[in-house]
Amino acid sequence: MNLNYERYLAEEFAEDEKFWLWVIEDDAAQDAFWRQYIAQNTEKAKEVEQAKEMVLQINAANHRLADKKVNLLWEKIQSSTEGLDATVYTK
Question: I want to staple 10 with a disulfide (CB 3.0 to 4.6 A). Which of 27, 50, 55, 68 is the partner?
């Protein structure tokens, strides 16, 4: 375990490569490490949660779909549901 993590603030967690692997890549080894870290350092749970939100926001901004792509996907969804019976939506 990185002993420096005990002193990390949310911003520092958000800059950590291994932390990113856990949040973004769904890495099993990192998941085990971070779950154990939080269990053993409950006072850091808030910092870790804030850092996760930062990483997710940064990643969302970097991978935002273009409006044109969103519109095309929405049109596909709408056209695929046009023939469905209305009762499907009421159940």
Answer: 50
Main-chain dihedrals φ then ψ at residue 88, nearest 5 degrees: -60, -35
Mean of the pLDDT values across residues 26-30? 86
Residue 51: inside a domain: yes
Domain presence at residue 75: no
Number of domains in the chain: 1
Tokens 């769904």 label which residue?
26
Q: What is the C-alpha separation between 29 and 20, in angstroms, rounded?
A: 12
Query: Residue 37, Cα to own-chain centre: how many angstroms?
Result: 18
- Whether 34 and 19 have beta carbons less than 8 Å apart is answered as yes
Residue 31 has pLDDT above 70, yes or no: yes
